[in-house]
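Input record, target 12 of the design panel.
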């Protein structure tokens, strides 16, 4: 086994090397660009001012498949570092101009990832320890060295460097991937936010379209109700019942869908009478003949049949069929009692009878409001649901009080967003626009054009809180008891 001490020139082999080779002959001219070593082969730079030591190190590493570069001075070594890719540097401690410790410090500054190993004798131990403390070297090898130990040290150092390099690459890759992931997440969040906003906008548009469609449907039912009343001889009855029934249903806590069904059912609750002969229309029920009574008792079934074809009106059809049932079970057509009768039908029954009592449709005379209220209370627990009656009568009182806040305006002062407080009726009492209607630009334009073209001066009752500031107001309404 070869043992070598750097700087010991008396050994024959070293002498022969010194005699046949010069420093320049051992070094190839540096290329203009950084030269990569053979693929997958580590490169070790050995620096010593004695070429014999350099050759000895080269032989050791060549047998291990490790490429080597040699330099006879620190300056030459630094020059090679600028033009070659180096994995590990072995430097002798004692060199002229710049010692090994200082040289390895310069290597660290050049590239901290290069493994730095110092060849040192026992006499240089204090300098070696100082270099270690400064972080300039990773390992030191004492002279004379053992080839196997030297190879083991170099292999371990290169393995550690390779591991550190791969770790650094993985860390960098992870960093890049995290940045990409963050960018992707941010982009995804932006896309999701944009898509969510788009869907919310679409949903809003669909809701608005559905609301417009529903409003149009309700308006169509109002028109149909008005047409029925034009023939039936009881103008305004269905409208008034619908307003009372809707508010009563709200106060009794019915869901919005059920409130809507109650309102629509009240508008068309007498649709089954549309086929009555003229002799039956317009006269009180109390004056009907036996045959007329028999036909009258079928109008709820006929009304249900007329509405069943419309899927949107299934709940409405049920209310229409049951609105002449009584809580004591003596009503028609099915003799239902109490809770067997849907709440919507109990509400429409009470509201319809109250309006008919007040307007002479049930008997041959018009009853005062007080008398009509008293008669309705008298029918509690027999004809009517007591809770419905009490709520309905309170609605009547509250509506009368609220009417004091209704404001009359000229049609020329009508603006979009105003809410109609009282229904607009035709000359024959048919509903043209129902109370609660919210005016939009199209309807405002149509009403204004109608007034202008027909030469008709129109005034409308609107809710005070829907009027924009600065709108001219007419004289306050007279309130009738």
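The sequence produced for target 12 reads:
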């Amino acid at each position: 086994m070869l043992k070598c001490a750097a700087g010991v020139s008396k050994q024959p082999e070293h002498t022969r090397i010194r005699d046949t080779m010069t420093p320049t002959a051992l070094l190839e001219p540096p290329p203009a660009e950084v030269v990569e070593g053979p693929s997958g082969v580590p490169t070790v730079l050995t620096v010593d001012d004695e070429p014999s030591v350099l050759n000895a190190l080269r032989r050791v590493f060549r047998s291990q498949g490790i490429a080597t570069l040699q330099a006879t001075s620190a300056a030459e070594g630094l020059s090679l570092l600028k033009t070659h890719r180096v994995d590990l540097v072995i430097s002798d401690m004692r060199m002229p101009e710049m010692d090994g410790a200082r040289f390895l410090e310069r290597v660290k500054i050049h590239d901290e990832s290069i493994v730095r190993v110092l060849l040192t004798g026992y006499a240089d131990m204090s300098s070696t320890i100082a270099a270690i403390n400064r972080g300039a070297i990773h390992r030191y090898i004492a002279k004379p060295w053992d080839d196997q130990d030297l190879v083991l040290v170099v292999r371990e150092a290169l393995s550690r460097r390779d591991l550190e390099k791969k770790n650094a690459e993985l860390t960098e890759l992870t960093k890049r991937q995290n940045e990409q992931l963050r960018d992707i997440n941010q982009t995804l969040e932006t896309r999701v936010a944009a898509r969510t906003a788009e869907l919310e906008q679409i949903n809003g548009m669909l809701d608005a379209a559905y609301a417009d469609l529903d409003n149009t449907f309700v308006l169509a039912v109002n028109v149909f109700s008005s047409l029925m009343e034009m023939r039936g001889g009881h103008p305004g009855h269905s409208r008034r019942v619908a307003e009372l029934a809707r508010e009563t249903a709200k106060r009794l806590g019915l869901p919005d869908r059920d409130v809507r069904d109650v309102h629509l059912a009240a508008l068309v609750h007498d649709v089954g009478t549309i086929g009555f002969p003229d002799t039956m229309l317009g006269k009180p029920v109390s004056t009907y003949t036996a045959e007329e009574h028999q036909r009258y008792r079928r109008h709820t079934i006929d009304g249900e049949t007329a509405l069943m074809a419309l899927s949107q009106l299934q709940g409405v059809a049920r209310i229409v069929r049951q609105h002449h049932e009584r809580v004591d079970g003596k009503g028609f057509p099915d003799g239902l009692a109490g809770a067997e009768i849907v709440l919507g039908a109990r509400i429409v029954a009470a509201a319809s009878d109250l309006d008919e009592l007040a307007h002479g449709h049930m008997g041959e005379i018009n009853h005062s409001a007080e008398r009509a209220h008293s008669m309705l209370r008298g029918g509690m627990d027999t004809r009517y649901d007591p809770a419905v009656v009490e709520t309905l009568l309170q609605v009547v009182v509250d509506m009368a009080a609220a009417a004091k806040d209704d404001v009359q305006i000229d049609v020329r002062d009508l603006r979009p967003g105003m809410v109609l407080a009282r229904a607009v009726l035709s000359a024959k009492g048919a509903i043209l626009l129902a109370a609660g209607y919210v005016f939009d630009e199209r309807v405002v334009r149509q009403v204004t054009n109608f007034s202008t073209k027909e030469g008709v001066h129109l005034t409308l009752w609107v809710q005070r809180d829907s009027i924009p500031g600065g709108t001219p107001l007419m004289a306050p309404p007279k309130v009738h008891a």
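The CA atoms of residues 409 and 473 lie 6 Å apart.
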